[in-house]
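Predict both folds.
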Amino acid sequence: MGDPQVTVNNLSKIEEGKPHTLSFMANPKYEDYVYSTLASVVIVNKTFIPVRPVKTTLIKVEDAYQAFTKLLHTYNGKNGHHVTGIQQPSYIASGATTGENVFVGAFAHIGEGATIGKNVKIHAGVYIGDHATVGDDCILYPGVKVYQKCQIGSRVIIHANAVVGSDGFGFARRKDGSYEKIPQTGNVVIEDDVEIGANTTIDSATLGSTIIRKGVKLDNLIQVAHNVEIGEHTVIAALVGISGSTKIGKRCIIAGQVGIAGHLEIADDIIIGAQAGVSKSFTTPGLTLLGAPAYEVNESKKIFIATRRLPDTIQKVAKLEAELEALKKKLGNDGK
């Protein structure tokens, strides 16, 4: 629908569309912008039927969001993501192995015995420790630190200043109240197609491995403690903290600022609302949890409603107590 000869040379949000740009509309709440946008082309779902005249050219597809995502991948690929070569100064140990078409940025360090797959992009200031493994087609952005023996799968993206494999928070309390550090001898295993946000930290296991399963997406500023396991395709928003040895299931959704205590089990397909405090295991799949401490959503709503009524309830109780005291005095005087 529109001009089949139209050309575009950039991308834009539909509400900020400019001539010669391409945008998309997948969420119905943005429909009004279809009629007013200056974007030259807008990708929409096949189910979209305009109710007013449309000035822009529409391209109808099965899934507008997925189609636009594929275009973004293409756009990114033409903007610096195909760089190769070794910049100097950088350090690659003589015993390290690197695959074809690798890019190593300035001041990067690749340790002894490390293995780097093909098409990997290692940006400036990245540290990869001894005997660490990075699979094919990964991107490690500036300042990423991967400690010794950690294993990273293929097509993993790790954003700036994330740390993989730092020591877990393990200390034994002595009789005098001081603490002795417990050696952290394990590693971190990150499977394929994982994305890790900037400044996120994933601690090495005390023994064994901290494991981030296939397809997990971690936002910025997340703390994953030692021996945690996060199941396939789970997504976790910023400022979440997960304590040691907790196991999180597949396809879970964890909103921002959630705190999860240690040695717990979270079943598959569980949704945890923002700022929840999870202090016990939830082993029934598919629950939605809210609140601190976290409860199943219906129970949490009851608690929330009861909490909102507390001021009125306190006033009523105080009034009843006063009336009871007055009644006691009256009965006492009558008894005399």
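Second protein follows, with its predicted structure tokens after the sequence.
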Amino acid sequence: MMRAKANVISWRRQRGFSLIELMVGLTVSLICTIAMMSAFALFEGQKRTTTSGDDAQQNGSYSLYELERQIRTAGSGLTQGFNYGLWGCAMTAYTGSTQRIPKAAAAPAPFSTWPGVSPATPVPMRAIPVLITDGGVDGSGNALPDTIAVVGGNPAGTVFKSKVTSTPASTTVVLDNSLGIYAGDYMLATTTVGNCVLGQVSTNTAATNTLGLSAASVPSTGFNGAGYLFDLGAQPNFSLYGVNTTTAQLTTFDMLQLTTGPTAGTVLPVADGIVQIKALYGVDDGASNAAIPGSGTLGDDIIDEWVKAVGGTWSSASILASQTTAAQAVQQIKAIRLVVVARSQLPEKSTDYTGPTQMTLFSDLPAALQSKINLDPQYRYKVYDTTIPIRNAVITRRF
């Protein structure tokens, strides 16, 4: 009897879980799994949002830094030439025996319509530190990105000017003083009225103040007729900056095409996730503005008002129309107000975002200066707004 009872207890211990017990266990496990996955999905979504926002912040910060660095140094080597026919001169530039400026064909996209001057080719350029080309608006009235051209030099020493005493040959020029000019430097020479030519120094014979010029960097006439030379250093900056709206990138194009290799003559990306840049000129035009203390006197180097790069005075077409209009613009433009808009790379659920679908740039300025852009609810945006002084413009009344 005792053995039979022990067998029954042993059999009950060996039979395992019942079907009902297994179903209850599976149900509880499933509920726990769903809860954990929901929490994980929520956490992952928050992480993606944070990461995307951080990426947009980094891209926007770097883009603003790069543009500010270029604009702050714009005009280096140029602004000393106010009284010597340099400002606003129509430039001719060769590199590698090919004429780069005026450019025979339009630049690659997104600069194919720059600078918005008719005829489109040859593409002109004048000696102007910064030139904004307004992007206009699309069919819905939303602002399109602007293009910013930056011109300047990086001379090793500060050379005010060098007077040309003779040009014995197309690749030779004699100066009154060649101190501070080095082989490899690019010199900008004022030639006939309103024109200037860029050329690269190959040798500097200090004893006779004679410069040899690289034949591949000058036209066949060389610096013939030049009055003064201005040193732009070994890596002059003749660059365009704009936004590729297809790839959402800040891009740049070297108008001189000084680089060699597979990237020569191509548009290069600067930063990803940039969807908009807009810029305004801060000008000293003598206008009285109650919001700007001290404004109202022409030539006092105080910004009297902010203006868009449009219209009969400040559009690219108007500034590039003649040396007179270009030189006047150089004298009056004292700062650039710049907005960079960065966007996250990864889209999110539109239902996770309930913010506005449109943004106004320069919202603190009059309505005529503002720009509106559409926002995609599936992305996060970072906006950077700054004012950049054209430092080299401060000395324009001194020379």
